[in-house]
Amino acid sequence: MRLQNKILIAFLFFILVPIFILGFVSYHVTSSTLKNKVGDETLYTLEAIDLNIQMVMSEVNTLSNYIISSREVQDFIKYNDEQSLLDFYNKGQAIAGLLYGQSKLDDLVLYSAIGQVYSFKKTQTPSYGQFLESEFYNMMVEEEGRPVWISTVESDKFVNIDQPIFSQGRVIKDIHTLRDIGYLILDVKLDRFDEVFKRLQHPNSQEMIVNDKGEIVYNRNHQLIGETVPLPEKIMFKQAGFFVDDWEQEKSLITFIPVTFNEFESSNFFLISVKPWSFITNETKFIRQVTIFLVIFVTVFAICFKQLFLNRIIYFITEFQSKMKQVENGQLTTRMKAFAIMELNHLAKGFNRMVEEISTLLIRVNNEQERKRKAEFKVLQNQINPHFLYNTLESINSMAVLHGSRDISKMTINLGKLLRISINTDDKVTVSDEVRHVISYMEIQKVRFDERFRFEIEIDKQLEHYFILKLVLQPLVENILIHAFHRNKTDGVIKIRGGISSNKGFFFIEDNGVGITNDVLRFFNEYKQGSKTSSQKIGCGVMNVQERIKLYYGERYGIMICSEENRGTTMKLTFPLSEGERDDL
């Protein structure tokens, strides 16, 4: 896959995927929030509707209480007293005006225990025998005077009616003996329920009352009363709530609460509100549309960005890679052309400068290498063969032994040892070799100084196999011999002690010479800290050792000097413990 395609795909992926995720999460969070919000609001509405229905039913209960307890109705039922019936009728005219004005009652029916039937509207009413055979009669007898309500669906089984109603029935008891003397039926028009639902109903939703069989017992569209709808199982097992499910093959938000018409019966009716989910989520369509718009916009923008800008950068990268390969193959005459984009043009100029500098540097390195090779060859030409020196010293030693000059023989042997370690090309030697070297040096100097000093060596055996920079002890001893001992001093002592402390190697080099002044010690400390650049006030050998240790081992190691005038000097040299090249890697 080409680089520009990879960059375009990566650009689209890292931009579009977050947009898709954001849109998806926003849509679902908003839908869930709307569901809970609308569901809670609808629950409050259903509870308000239920409260108003209960108020309507309470008003009818109050009216029925008045009717069954009135003296006129009692006399009519017990004695078939026409005058009582006339008085009740006259009173009923006033009551009827009130009831019809409020659209509450459609009819009032009285049955006496001896079979008489009275209808307030004088309409066709079921006979007393039909009434006794109905389920409505059995329900009223079971309730023993308490109100019994039946819906239109159940009323159809009792009497054929042209318009939907709710009916309340009650047993009329003698107010003196509490004996059943008749029965009262009040038919309530649904207009009163329509007012309640119309006032509280939400737009684009339908509220209804459904029994536990799925039969619609009330709907503002009266033509739907009696229809059967499949009830979701969630309604049957909950007290109240809301959920999203299919209602008549449309996804809807279904909210429900149980209601009861008969006070002492368990609830077998449900007040249900159904709202199309598409209407509820209408607000979320904006989020979905914005997400789609953003996806299209970003895609078009990415393509335009690629064509107008990204292709130039990709071309530069491709060209840069090609030129780099040419430089890697040794084509140092390669150059990049100028680019219109300022930043890319700067990079191209920087590449060209780099190639030019590399070319110049290679020429310079080749010239230096050539000069170095010639110099080394000249040194080799002038170098004396070390074997010739060793053979010459061995001849001098043999002649000294033959003539009995043991001092000359000893000096010759020590000088051979000095030459051997001095011409060694390695940077480091073992502590034991470094100590043998300084011993050879001091043996030669004892002859030179006519035995005016002696030396003591005390080295920890564990330290001897570790490695140290070569030629670090001999310059310090040489500095002592030059600056610490006067010509008339005959009891000079040099002590060298070596050991291990805190995972570091150390040497103490002590003498009993003239000591070092405070000015020189202060100058040495300033030199160590970098504030002085000249070492003329201090022995060059000491400073050389200090610089070599600092450069090779780091700032934590080096020489520390303690001295007191006319009492002597002690130098401490510290170095890291190393076992050769293995520790240097």
From TrEMBL:
Primary subcellular site in the record, as a coarse category: membrane
Entry keyword annotation includes Repeat: no
Keyword DNA-binding: no
Residues in HAMP domain copies: 311-363
Record's bilayer topology term: Multi-pass membrane protein
UniProt KW keywords: Cell membrane, Kinase, Membrane, Phosphoprotein, Transferase, Transmembrane, Transmembrane helix
Segments passing through the bilayer: 7-27, 286-305
Cellular-component GO terms for this entry: plasma membrane
Entry-linked InterPro entries: Bact_2-comp_sensor_kinase, dCache_1, HAMP_dom, HATPase_C_sf, HATPase_dom, Sig_transdc_His_kin_internal
Pfam family, any one: dCache_1
Subcellular localization, as worded in the UniProt entry: Cell membrane
GO molecular function, one term: phosphorelay sensor kinase activity
Full protein name: HAMP domain-containing protein
UniProt source species: Anaerobacillus alkalilacustris
Highest classification ranks of the organism: Bacteria, Bacillati, Bacillota, Bacilli, Bacillales
